[in-house]
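Summary for the steering committee. One of the milestones for this cycle was to obtain a three-dimensional model of the protein with zinc ion bound, which we needed before selecting residues for the alanine scan. The sequence and ligand used are listed below.
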Amino acid sequence: MPHSERFDVYVNANQDKFLKEFGEFIAVPSVAAQKRGIKEMADLLTKRFRKLGAVVRQYPLPDGGSPVVYAEIGSGPRTLMIYNHYDVQPEDPLALWTTDPFTLTRQDGKLFGRGVSDDKGELLSRIQAVEAWLATRGDLPLKIKWVIEGEEEIGSVHLEDWVREQADMLGADGILWEGGGYDEAGRITMAAGCKGIAYFELRVQGPAVDMHSANAPIVTNPAWRLVQALSTLKNTQDEITIDGFNAHVRPLTPLEIQRIEALPFEAEQFKHNYGLARFLNDLDDRAALRRLYEIPTATICGLTSGYQGNGTKTVLPAVASAKLDFRLVPDLTPDLVEDLLRRHLDARGFTDVQITRLSGEKPARSPIESPLRTAAIEASLDTWNQTPVLYPWFAGSGPMYPLSVMLNIPVISAGATWHPDTRAHSPNENILERDYFTSLRFTASLIEHFSQV
Ligand SMILES: [Zn+2]
């Protein structure tokens, strides 16, 4: 029997065992935001790596942060780093779940539970792929360095410092990231980076308490102050007008433009799904696609002040606040955006607008061409008989920057268990049982191809 066939036989024979183990991972409520189940999950994972035969260590982080679990196994000329995280989002609102979030539940070919897609399914199926390899094919043809963090869902607050301290240990030829999966049309998707993010709260304090609105001629209204300040951040063409902001946007290379223009985009379907008559500024579909990946954003995510209930209440509010997020492209960073925003507002007399940064992640743009990308395409052909759609980077954000940009290692999100209705972060998070095992096979195929290209 050829070894790839022996691998399949082993995986099929061990399906129940693998899923039972998946259930043990889901059962630990490792919610980083609430510091629940973190140590227990890190210990379970450490034990699992030891059982695999890996050298594993937990790295404690300052301020009671979730430890990084780091494991190494195998040897060879190539080194593959694998990034996943063992923390999950809080399960609430609990009432909207149809199953218990911390009991892995099989139903209609699907697996339900908090973390099945984000990110315990990928995490464990990749470990089991290596187990099946060792059991049927002998030694690994390359070295694997596993970085599993426990703070991804709270913004990876300590990851950059940890990577800086451990840089000598973390050299690799490519990083297999979380995410990927397939889209509504069944196309396998991969990406070599992501946008960054900076999230702020803007707040203006007016009088100590809400006042009768008859006082408006003599009392400053914080709601007016806030909307006037916000209106200076963008013009009516939707261009960001923060002083100096656009000078930090790195122009796309011809290859990047070519890659973006080659992406599929079901514009009519997209507009239909969200009830949009047209895109912003009447952009045509191709221009909209390019803009989605090319430019940074400044979005008012929420705006609050005064009275919003039924009928009327003549009040001059005490406070006004807004939540703002910026999706960042190179070379914008959260520090830079905070600084530019402060100076821009101060220069216009809005020193009364307080800025609080709530989270931030730097953008990650990885080389589009790399041996890892070539191997991922080969593995996709093996696994799904499909050439994947290669996003140069996702329009969303994640903690790729420290490992891929700081250490200069090409990264790819590929082989995920995600399907279009996976409901990550939401009630009834689910994956297809079939996809769990397909993803496992993809990992083995990637190891094989990456050791050869
Ligand atoms: Zn995740």
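Key point for the committee: Residues 85, 118-119, 152, 178 surround zinc ion (CB under 6 Å).
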